[in-house]
Predict the 3D structure of the following.
Amino acid sequence: MASVQHAEGDRRDFLFLATGAAAAVGGAAVVWPFISQLAPDAATVAAGAPVELDLSSIAAGAQIKILWRGKPYFVRNRTEAEIKAAQDVDISTLRDPETDAHRVKEGHAKWLITAANCTHLGCVPLGNQGDYGGWFCPCHGSHFDTSGRIRKGPAPKNLPVPQYTFVSETRIRITGAAAA
């Protein structure tokens, strides 16, 4: 008789543990959607989150293109010659007059960050090309200088500069979209 009671106790303990485990898994399955819906989805995070970029790997005279908020941006490490060419322009001759100093951060003239869409119809211009050594939009023939300013072609405005800050000498944080 003792062995029958012992077997019933083991069976009862197993059923108790199995029922408890099933209840825990079921409870977690019910609660999980409520918890996960509290977090913003990836599109929301991508739409508003600032992006940080390490500039140390971009050689002088080179540029990279990054995507932020689903839009392309150019990050260009300008040479001394490109900076001088941009600074020597008579801004009264420009369609969208803007000094080079206004388009870069003080003390960081070698770094130019712009939206990578032509202001004519939104094409992506080619870097280090065109009549002014900046960007050339092969779709419709707009030429931008080494400061991203429109110099020739149908584009009405300069390549927009986003809101950004230098976190360190070799790191930037883009925090706001380029004004259109």
